[in-house]
Amino acid sequence: MEKFSKAILKHAGEQLMLDMSDSELYVLEQELSVLKEQMDLLGAVSGIDESEPLAFPYDVETTYLREDIAQTPLSVEQVKKNAPHTIDDAIKVPKVVG
Description:
Blueprint: H1 6-15, H2 22-43, H3 76-82, E1 86-87, E2 90-91
Antiparallel strand pairs: 1-2
């Protein structure tokens, strides 16, 4: 992979309609170079291609969850009986944002 140069980053920024100053381009160039070095280090690890992706580092059993059993849903009339304020088939709730 080629090195991230100021010209490449400026061209990419123009394609994305981003106007970046020279100092912003410099910082982005430095950050991407560090990221590339880290990716190269990961790529150098032997046997990484044979490893399975890991979603969570520990074996966790979720025994506290109930079985998901399909049931008949409540009718609109049953739901409206439990709601203090309704408008047509909608439940009116207090305003929560100002």
